[in-house]
Specification:
With 18 residues, this protein is an all-alpha fold. The chain contains one helix and no strands. The mean pLDDT is 77.
């Protein structure tokens, strides 16, 4: 479980909520 990798994906991918 890499939190750093998850954050990178969120930064690359657009926010689904917004």
């Amino acid at each position: 479980m890499s939190a750093e990798k998850e954050q990178e994906k969120k930064k690359k991918l657009p926010s689904p909520l917004q």
